[in-house]
Amino acid sequence: MGDIVEDETSFYSNAEDYWKEVPPTVDGMLGGYGSISNIDINGSKAFLKKFIREGEGKTGSGCALDCGAGIGRITKRLLLPLFQTVDLVDVTKEFLDKARSYLGEDGKRVENYFCCGLQDFVPETGRYDVIWIQWVIGHLTDDHLVDFLRRCQKGLRPNGLVIIKDNVSYEGIVPDEVDSSVCRDLEIVRRLVGRAGLRIIHEEQQMNFPKEIYQVHMLALR
Is the pLDDT of residue 151 over 90? Predict the structure, then answer.
């Protein structure tokens, strides 16, 4: 991917500039596709519930981390209903400020709002049952993604999971000049996960999204 991202600094700063101009709304978070939010959340919930149960080898429901959280759409609809506490991390301060009101009463169970790019973020060791990374890996270079996933692994509790949910391209790496990101094909994502020392324990495609957008896949990693 090095040849696609020629200048790492501007790759990140252009993305930050792009998101600063995006309205802090559900529609803004979903690039104008606010209408798919319910389908997205329901697909994620069905996926996540396969792992979170009491009992041997199951993932706990104590604390989750929402990566690239924006205004907290996923925290509000998916994570707070399933976990006792949630932390949010996002590079855009305005989104995190908005999250405080958007999350409403349940927002009291959010312990931390981290304003930080994922390339620099270090999850606290052994803190999280689930680290949820949705629609944000395209904003990381390959090396930074691998390093971030390694740090995530250290941030997990026993039986914890890292979950990636993201667009996948049909082939190779497709750059997006508008928001300064890339879309990788599934094989490349799998390879980067492997490089990070994680294995995919379950993988599914999100169904019922509009035909004109990228396919979206969910990968559960340990």
Answer: yes
Query: What is the CATH class of 8-221?
Result: alpha beta
Domains of the chain, residue spans: 8-221
Question: What does the pLDDT average to over 19-31?
Answer: 97
Stated pTM of the model: 0.97
Annotated binding site: 68, 73, 90-92, 118-119, 134
Radius of gyration of the chain (CA): 16
In sequence order, the 6+-apart residues with CB closer than 8 A to the CB of 50 are: 202
CA distance 221 to 155: 13
Do 113 and 99 contact (CB within 8 A), yes or no?
yes
Inform me whether the pLDDT recorded for 15 exceeds 80. Answer: yes
Residues annotated as binding site for S-adenosyl-L-methionine? 68, 73, 90-92, 118-119, 134
Tell me how far apart the alpha carbons of residues 145 and 136 are, in angstroms, rounded to a whole number. 10
pLDDT of residue 65: 99
Side chain identity, residue 141: T
